Amino acid sequence: MTLKALMTAGIGAAALLAGPAMAQAPNSQDWAQRQAQNETVSAQRMMSGDVTNGFNMLGNVSDIVLNARGTAVEYVLYEVPFPYDVYTAEDGFVRWDNIEVERGVGSGLDLRIDGEASAYAKEQLQLTRAEAGDRLVSRIVGSDLTFSDGQMREIDDIQFDPESGMITNFVVEMDEDSLFDEDTRLVPAAMVMLDPQGVWTVRQPVTYNWTVWAM
Known about the structure:
Elements: H1 3-18, H2 29-38, E1 41-42, H3 43-47, E2 50-52, E3 57-66, E4 73-79, E5 92-95, E6 99-103, E7 109-113, E8 120-121, H4 129-132, H5 137-140, E9 144-146, E10 152-160, E11 167-173, E12 184-188, E13 192-194, E14 200-202, E15 211-212
Parallel strand pairs: 2-7, 9-14
Antiparallel strand pairs: 1-10, 2-3, 3-4, 4-5, 5-8, 6-7, 9-10, 10-11, 11-12, 12-15, 13-14
C-alpha cells in the first residue's frame, strides 16, 4: 500500500473514532493545516529509509538531490550496505518520477521503484558532489535560512509532496537558544529561494506569523 493510501485510511479512521467531536474540525484553519502537513513526506524520514524494487532492498538512501532550481527532488542516491556490497550489488540512484513512497521499518520511509522502471548505476549520474553543491538535502538540512530582517535560523527538516517531489515547506526551529525543538514552524517553500551564492533566503522576517508545526 502506498503512503498516500495509508495516509487517507489513517485520516478516515481517525475521523470515525472521533465522531461528533470532529464535526466542525474540517472547517477550521488548524484542521486544514494539519491535514496538509499529513499529506507531505519528511526528508529526514526518507534519508532513514531504503530503496526497494517491491521485492528486495536495493540499498539504503544515502542522499537526495534536488533539481537545478532547488524546488523539487530529482534523484535519490542509495548505497548497498555490508555484507551485500561484497557480492555483485552496487551503489546507484533512482529518478523521483520512477518511485512510490511507502512506509518503511520504524520511522523511515521506503522508496519503491515503480512499474517497469529500474535503478541506475552510479556511473550513469554525470554529477559530482561539488556540482550538486546546495542541491544535496544532506547539506541543506542543518544549514541556515536567512530571513528578510537578516536573522538566520537552522533548517530542521524539509517537507515534500510525495507524488510530485516538490518542496512544500522548510521546518525551522525559531528558538535558537533551545536545546530542544520547542518552537518549530513551517516556512512555505513559495517564500524561499536559493540565491546565486547558494544561500537559502526568505522573503519575510523571523517575526512573521509562521504556522506552528503540528508533529
